[in-house]
Amino acid sequence: MVLEKIEQANDIKKLNPQELEILAGEIREFLIEKISKTGGHLASNLGVVELTMALHLAFQLPEDKIIWDVGHQSYTHKILTGRREGFEGLRKYGGMSGFPKRRESDCDAFGTGHSSTSISAGLGYAHARDIRKKNYKVVSVIGDGALTGGMAFEALNNATRLEKNFIIVLNDNNMSISENVGGLSNHLNRLRTAESYHDLKEGVMNSLAKIPVYGDWMVEQVRRAKSGIKQLVIPGMIYENMGITYLGPVDGHNIEEMVRVFKDASKVDGPVMVHCLTQKGRGYLPAERHPARFHGAEPFDIETGLPSNKKEKAAYTDIFSTVMRKLGDRNENVVAITAAMETGTGLKRFHNMFPERFFDVGIAEEHAITFAAGLAAGGMIPVVAVYSSFLQRAYDQILHDVCIQNLHVIIAIDRAGLVGSDGETHQGIFDISFLCTIPNMTLMAPKNKWEFSDMVKFAVDFDGPIAIRYPRGEAYDGLAKMRAPIVLGKSETLYDEEEICLIAFGSMVKTAVKVREMLKERGYHCSLINARFAKPLDYEMLTRTAKEHRLLVTLEENVKSGGFGEQVMDYLEECSLDVRLLNIAISDEYVEHGNVNILYQEVGIDAESVVKRIIAEYVGLK
Ligand SMILES: Cc1ncc(C[n+]2csc(CCOP(=O)(O)OP(=O)(O)O)c2C)c(N)n1
Ligand SMILES: CC(=O)[C@@H](O)[C@H](O)COP(=O)(O)O
Ligand SMILES: [Mg+2]
């Protein structure tokens, strides 16, 4: 097997052209086989096999810096840098990450997970190189989806002041997770159909040479032009006008051609964009046909392409999808917004039913929030559905555009809490802390699927900024009969006893039910409150429970710092309420990838760990 000849970075350079072709096939087989078992970002990776090989042939690692945008397409890069074995434990606890990590390899120049950072980071690297008088190449690889993110444009704008070489490889597969949308995508579509870089180059030179008298002189001038790259009428004029040399389009599955163009690009002084055309999912028919389904794939059967594990229960995302469809029907002012996560956030059905009230704004969370603020100011009821970790990008927009003006924008925060295999970049464990610092914001979290549905309806009838956080995966269907109406800033008492009072927020109610049962078995008496609101807090409930219990325990799937528990603590202190308080939350650290049940144990918020901590605390009181 040619693949076995690849043991470390740059081994690929020892292969002959026939072996390179075989290697591309073997890498694809390897990826399909491994990801069918572990799950992972299959379609994006199948699309960049040749592109990655060409980069590794044209550049020298780890001296040269390749910076992957998002990083979900870095699997071939991992294989070519000696990490083939790591695929056994891909995205598993203690195993190899699905994203580039500086601590994993010196060939991973920059850690990622979130989109549209690669040009900024690459530009930083390039300036650092020049200031420190080093001589390496910097290559940022960005997808057409990631290029829709504001940061990418900010970086392109800034890159034009660079005088030395900096290569931006645009991996254009005409897809984000779903179909890529917007003006940029239209622009790239036009470039896609332009003549290829090489044909154009040859064509231009031949035509020039035929011009009488001046032809040869002109060819010579072009040859001498900036950096020796011969370009005249370039389809990527938008980049050229900005001061970024554009080379393309290039066939992103032709290794030889790409290596030639990358070498050409290395000679350019200043920023240069190489536009490569690739096919998402290439080489595996189900992924070619359904690139969105195989973007982030669960384990699947290779023959059929169908998921290996059957989904038993509805996810919170499914409930959201149903409620949004109903609300869209009931209220024609309801509009839905996603930042390129139509499928992931469950808005596909809303899109199909109300296309004129659905907006995919591209990978642009900051814009999504301010756009929603504008819609609200204009009389609509916008619902922005967004993953917790991506919402981190829009802090200022929530504060400046939504909350100062007290606008009725609803933020549906999916993937709030630990998400599992995507790891530290994607864990949604900061939103309680960053949202509760903002005046005028209201933050809720449901205990189960019915309450979630009630909360979405409550949010639509509300007036003002309001967010609902809910976790990835299965919606809890316990406590079905407990369905008291939602009242602003009011909690729900589920069990009223004495001694210990568990006050749980959102997803932690499910854990708290288990904790309470375990404590009861050990002879403790336990109240259980479903907090429902982290902001505003239920002050009346806190005052009462503080007086009636010896120990209050807050539970949340968020970092402790600035979280629900710390706010409860502040209130108890402010009111000099004399009761012992234990905050169950995630400590001040990033949580790596792995199965969420393992992660709960790791961070100490699983039922067994919580029971141990409560008993230790309570015993200490006696
Ligand atoms: C800030 C942020 N928002 C959303 C995402 C989710 N996301 C991951 S990959 C992706 C699409 C990227 O498209 P593209 O860059 O074209 O890469 P492709 O998968 O097509 O190779 C999105 C929306 C993210 N990682 N970061
Ligand atoms: C790379 C990325 O950001 C997304 O593809 C993400 O992995 C999707 O996560 P879910 O599987 O939770 O939708
Ligand atoms: Mg793409």
UniProtKB/TrEMBL annotation:
CDD domains: TPP_DXS, TPP_PYR_DXS_TK_like. It holds the Pfam family DXP_synthase_N. Its cofactor is thiamine diphosphate; Mg(2+). Its EC number is 2.2.1.7. Pathway: Metabolic intermediate biosynthesis; 1-deoxy-D-xylulose 5-phosphate biosynthesis; 1-deoxy-D-xylulose 5-phosphate from D-glyceraldehyde 3-phosphate and pyruvate: step 1/1. Thiamine diphosphate binds at residues 72, 113-115, 145-146, 173, 284, 365. Residues 314-478 form the Transketolase-like pyrimidine-binding domain. GO terms for molecular function: 1-deoxy-D-xylulose-5-phosphate synthase activity. This is 1-deoxy-D-xylulose-5-phosphate synthase. The keyword Magnesium applies. It catalyses: D-glyceraldehyde 3-phosphate + pyruvate + H(+) = 1-deoxy-D-xylulose 5-phosphate + CO2. Catalyzes the acyloin condensation reaction between C atoms 2 and 3 of pyruvate and glyceraldehyde 3-phosphate to yield 1-deoxy-D-xylulose-5-phosphate (DXP). Homodimer. InterPro entries: Dxylulose-5-P_synthase, THDP-binding, Transketo_C/PFOR_II, Transketolase-like_Pyr-bd, Transketolase_C, Transketolase_CS. Keywords: Isoprene biosynthesis, Magnesium, Metal-binding, Thiamine biosynthesis, Thiamine pyrophosphate, Transferase. Binds 1 thiamine pyrophosphate per subunit. Belongs to the transketolase family. DXPS subfamily. It comes from the Bacteria. It is an enzyme of class 2 (transferase). Mg(2+) binds at residues 144, 173.
